[in-house]
Amino acid sequence: xxxxxxxxxxxxxxxxxxxTCFTYRLACTERVGGRxxxxxxxxxxxxxxxxxxxxxxxxARLTELISP
Length: 68
Prior knowledge:
With 68 residues, this protein is of the alpha+beta class. It has one domain (4-66). The chain contains one helix and three strands, in the order βββα. The protein has a three-stranded antiparallel sheet with strand order 1-2-3. The longest helix is centred in the last third of the chain and has 12 residues, at 55-66.
């Protein structure tokens, strides 16, 4: 299982207009072979409505839901 889940904001650029926008991804960290690796679990898209102050609560609830 993973050790820590978080939301990452990523800057992207439109190939047509060159406009810069942000997308949001649900990511986690996992210890693999003595090293910590980060994985993207889900692309949340660019219209992710939760404020950044609510991200830790969102991730904690998701972890709670998927934990055995």
